[in-house]
Design goal:
With 402 residues, this protein is α/β, with parallel strands linked by helices. Helices cover 39% and strands 25% of the residues. The chain has 13 helices and 17 strands. The strands form three sheets. A nine-stranded mixed beta sheet has the order 16-15-14-13-7-12-11-8-17. A six-stranded parallel beta sheet has the order 3-2-1-4-5-6, with helices on both faces. Strands 9-10 form a two-stranded antiparallel sheet. α1 packs parallel to α2 and α9 packs antiparallel against α10. It is globular and about 65 Å long.
């Protein structure tokens, strides 16, 4: 098949990472995609990404300052990789979908559920594909965990514990992540948890949460080494109780401002055992405990004889990995390659991608349900948030200074 003609919109930190992921995809499955053009209003960012693309693909993509120029200059485009800040996602995606292009959008889908719904509705109205770039879901560790749960190795799941305690005084990639108008750090980072927990345990139905803002100012370096000062105006600490449609409970704690100890924990408890999962993109092994029995590594593979990664993921990580030892930049580009392969295959086959717009909307709603619950001081159902009946916190974000 001919490669999918792709436009990259957004050439900052994630845009550069996406180009490396596309390069990794071309390494294992040549001819999957053609990066026809890149677009960013910052000419230096666009030029740097185009230079890197030329090294990876042997051809330099065209450079545009805005999407109207790109659409006019590249009539053969089929799809767009949208990697701008989340507040701009809905406006750009609606325009691109209306122009007849399929779109994969970086997470979070949007800064509010209403904006995300606009994107989903636009894709449906145009008959186009809308995908969300959720890399951690493709981590072989999470693939294996889902296979183990499917085999019933811990019986019926009844509880999930997720703890993320991160260091203070650290800008997470970009300064805008710490601004309420852009969704805030809990939305931008903890949304991975929402994706993974629904992937492993099924739909979340309700949330009860408390939040607080610990940091009010940050000084540090962005992804490109630039030193910046940030006036933080979004919550950076949250504790939430989750209810799942299947009957399980969940406890999520995320704290992005610890001045001392840090911690990561993802534990799934079932009627017959527990699964202790390593951090996403770490390559660590899952540990299964059933009474005094402990199983990890290759021993887990014996419990799931049908477990296999899909074609692209197998080329990237091996058919039946129980773990891996790879540097973080290598893992990052491999997982982006996996998500991009799913998207371009969906474009060719005219099928729904694994993480479509509805999946992105649900994960967005889970995090906002936490924030809305904390503000309202009560339990909030996901249906209330998805339907827009509860949105006071999101209204604050819409009115916040950019």
């Amino acid at each position: 098949m001919a490669p999918v003609n792709l436009l990259l919109v957004g050439c900052g930190m994630m845009g550069a990472r996406h180009v490396r992921g596309l390069g990794e995809l071309e390494r294992v499955l040549p001819g999957s995609v053609r990066l026809a053009a890149v677009c960013d209003r910052r000419e230096d960012y666009a030029s740097d990404v185009a230079d890197e693309a030329q090294e990876l693909f042997g051809a330099r993509p065209a450079i545009y300052a805005d999407i109207d120029q790109a659409l006019a200059g590249q009539p053969a485009l089929q799809a767009v990789d949208l990697v701008t800040d989340p507040r701009s996602h809905d406006g750009l995606a609606v325009k691109l979908l209306g122009a007849g292009l399929d779109v994969i959008c970086e997470k979070p889908l949007a800064v509010t559920v209403e904006r995300g719904r606009r994107m989903v509705d636009a894709a449906q109205a145009a008959g186009r594909i809308l995908a969300v770039a959720e890399n951690n879901r493709r981590d072989p560790t999470n693939r294996l965990a889902r296979a183990l749960l499917g085999e019933g190795v811990i019986g019926q799941p009844n509880f999930a514990l997720q703890v993320l305690i991160n260091p203070a005084n650290r800008i997470i990639g970009t300064a805008w992540r710490h601004r309420l108008a852009m969704g805030g750090v809990l939305l931008d980072v903890a949304i991975h948890v929402a994706y993974i927990l629904e992937y492993l345990l099924g739909p979340v139905t309700a949330v009860t949460a408390q939040t607080q803002q610990v940091q009010h100012a940050l000084h540090g370096k962005e992804f490109n080494g630039k030193e910046v000062d940030v006036e933080v105006d979004s919550e950076d600490c949250c504790t939430a109780l989750l209810e799942f449609a299947g009957g399980a409970q969940g406890h999520v704690t995320a704290h992005f401002a610890s001045p001392g100890e840090t911690m990561y924990k993802r534990l799934l408890i079932g009627s017959a055992g527990t699964l202790n999962l390593p951090g996403d993109r770490s390559g660590g092994e899952i540990e299964l405990r059933r009474g005094c029995e402990r199983v990890s590594g290759e021993g887990l593979l014996e419990l799931v004889p049908e477990y296999r990664l899909n074609e692209a993921e197998a080329l990237l990580f091996g058919q039946r990995p129980a773990g891996y030892e790879l540097d973080w930049p290598v893992v990052d580009r491999k997982l982006i390659a996996a998500e991009m392969h799913d998207f371009v295959t969906a474009v060719r086959e005219r099928r729904s991608p694994e993480t479509d717009g509805e999946a992105g909307l649900r994960s967005l709603a889970i995090i906002h349900a936490m924030m809305e619950s904390a503000l309202a001081g009560r339990r909030v159902t996901l249906d209330e948030v998805l339907a827009g009946r509860v949105r006071a916190y999101q209204n604050q974000g819409e009115n916040a200074a950019v």
